[in-house]
Amino acid sequence: MKRLLMLLLSILLIVGVSGMAGATPETLDEGGYVAPLGWGTVAEHSSIDLDHSSYYIWGLNDLDPNAGITSIDIVFHGVYNWNVENNWLNVYIFNNPENLGWYREGSDNQSPTVPDWSAENLVGTWSDEDGSATRNDVVFTVTDSTLLSYIQGEGDFGIGIDPDCHFYGEKITVQAPVPEPATMFLLGTGLIGTAAIGRRKIYKSKR
Question: In CATH, what class is 21-195?
Fold first, then answer.
């Protein structure tokens, strides 16, 4: 009985750890992604051309550490598989990449374990389950507090992209909460109006 209990606990632990490894991204029709209200594009790579035998890194500056961001979206717009078969695409986030910008880091011969990204850095895995060349918007949403700490640490962060097939598409964007110009304008005019009212009250009191 004790052995059975230990076995069950071990299975639950393994399932729990694997469940924390990454979330399933959302698959939408091409052009279906709409950023949440108050969000905007904070980074953009203008095309998707991911060779199956390579892995890539996108080095970016950290976002405002005072923004209190609780979620971001990494969106593959219009992504499709060149071949009609079931393939996967892994996305990771890590701290302090060696370089900024987009670059091909190396070759892994389609291996899911090379390089060693470390499981805790996995944002999610997208699988082209229908095995077709249909274009989709694929959304990797980051809500894990550890991964979010990498992007708000007043330094740099890297997005690792590891495909096992050749994927093409329109672009990749990072979407996050940002102050809207209209909001900033209204805030500014509101402050100006408050200041004007304050001056009028002071002037009246002097009279």
Answer: mainly beta
